[in-house]
């Protein structure tokens, strides 16, 4: 884990984000309606195996799951700089990445920033390439400068949640099995990152 890169408040924020994700994801599940199959601490068997894990999924430790999260869902998609900038926006993005894979939330963050730039008066549109890099981070910095840290955080968290809600409804509308998870998704994933914590 690149927590060595993070110090002080950022390292504490990352630990807190991982704890919140573990709390939402829970322990071992193997629901036949879930295309992810066997899952423990939110890590699917496929992802665990691709990450080098060879044991039974029931035995996957939180420490191993945290290492997988750090590598695949935080470092690789470029979310670490968000942890350094804003704990709540980072949690919303990382949490969505664990639930949907990092690609969609990366797209959503870029789309959200474009929606919030007041027709490019505040900062230029970001190319929605679904890769979080310097241009995306610069746009987020510009939003924070223009709107203030707290309001920028609130706006991004709310719109990212709206993107997730839309994707849940799309999944439930196109796959009857997905409807089985709609109550749980709505109850535990939407609003689980509380924008009122933005400050």
Distance between the termini: 27 Å
Q: How much beta, percentage-wise?
A: under 5%
Helicity level: 55-70%
What overall geometry do the principal axes of the alpha carbons give?
Answer: globular
CATH topology: Chitosanase, subunit A, domain 1
Low-confidence runs (pLDDT<50, min 5 residues)? none
Query: In this structure, how is the largest beta sheet organized?
Result: 2 strands, antiparallel
What is the domain total for the residues? 1
Which strands sit side by side, in order, in the main sheet?
A: 1-2
- Please identify the top-level CATH class: Mainly Alpha
Please state the average pLDDT score.
93
Structural class comes to mainly alpha
CATH superfamily: Chitosanase, subunit A, domain 1
Q: Give the tally of β-strands.
A: 2
Radius of gyration: 17 Å
H/E element order? HEEHHHHHHHHH
Count up the helices.
Answer: 10
In CATH, the architecture is Up-down Bundle
Domain TtsA-like Glycoside hydrolase family: 20-101
Keywords: Signal
Signal peptide: 1-23
Domain Peptidoglycan binding: 105-188
Question: What can you see in these coordinates?
Answer:
This protein is mainly α and 199 residues long. The chain has one domain: Chitosanase, subunit A, domain 1. The chain has 10 helices and 2 strands, in the order H-E-E-H-H-H-H-H-H-H-H-H. The longest helix is centred in the C-terminal third of the chain and has 26 residues, at 149-174. Keywords: Signal. Residues 20-101 form the TtsA-like Glycoside hydrolase family domain.
